[in-house]
Predict the 3D structure of the following.
Amino acid sequence: MALRHAVLAALLGGDFSGYELAKEFGLGVANFWHAQPQQLYAELAKLEAEGMVVGRQVVQESRPNKRLFRVTDTGLAELERFAAAPSKPSFIRDDLLVKVQAVDRLGTGPVIEQLDARAAAAEAKIELLGKLLVRLRGDADEEEFLRRGRPIGPYLTCRRGLAFEEEHRDWCRSTAAVLRERQVLRAER
Amino acid sequence: MALRHAVLAALLGGDFSGYELAKEFGLGVANFWHAQPQQLYAELAKLEAEGMVVGRQVVQESRPNKRLFRVTDTGLAELERFAAAPSKPSFIRDDLLVKVQAVDRLGTGPVIEQLDARAAAAEAKIELLGKLLVRLRGDADEEEFLRRGRPIGPYLTCRRGLAFEEEHRDWCRSTAAVLRERQVLRAER
DNA sequence: TCCAGATACTCAAAAACATGACTAGTCTTG
DNA sequence: CAAGACTAGTCATGTTTTTGAGTATCTGGA
């Protein structure tokens, strides 16, 4: 039920085509929701049918035409309703954690490799999000921006994404270190 | 495709019935996967049909009989295969973050309330996980347990869950504080 | 003694999410 | 100048996850 709201929330940041929206979902929006492009096209079509967004054709030369979508008052009202309704709790759901859970009975080599890869991926994302934060707040310093800057929503969700990635990286590193040390100890006996 | 592996990994910790497994999924396993009881019963039936687990009837007086499941060698081999395959990246997907994203154009009151509620829920879970960690490591101190304790898998995933909840709580608190301060500033103007 | 809650499951349906294949022109880079 | 990536989508199918309702017995507390 919430993909639609994620789309509406993303469209508050400007008018986007399905294609552009997909790119947003690859970066900023990825901090709170994840979806394939096909899903977005489908959802936009539904939202338009329900009057939550309106699309307008933009004719382009030298590349395919596109349809830009804008949130309507109906859509904004729906978001307002959604914001006041209770949220469901959020969980982690992660392949790699399943593997770590089972690590006592499994070969640890591949798991350690994947932990390293994940840590590196998280590190890259941290860099990216750091830059995104700077871009979002312009030339204000953070404290000042938090007090008065706009838009504040995307900034706050981005901070959450950043903290998540940092935590993720740290856990991957320390877990890989623990498993490595145990490998060494086992080899010694 | 990974629920089955989460079930297998959970069953490594001992033999469980569907009902007991559901309780595991409410606590320790919740740190890396989430599923409804109905899903678990269905998955266990499939896994049994495929020979990944075996069930045995346990007759009980004064309460319904149950079927305990154990992972077979086939199941363990499947876990091994899974552990060596590449993992998909993990994302956050959270209703509340969607609301925060849109907060510039919405009434902030309900969002702040929900942030407070979430922070409190996270705090409660932190307590719980703290206790679970102590129980898992017995009387060893943490450093020693990480080096030699067993089983280490559940301990490591539990640490991840704990770090996640702490980060979540902190973000909820600081975000609520930011939004409150901005409300005050807006009222003053 | 009644009622809520725990134990132990089952069945069915709907919603959400993921995957793969396809079209078709343009722009960039080696 | 060819290969590959980018723009801008569509269509179909399959899997996973969620939601709701139901059954039946037993225990513990007001």
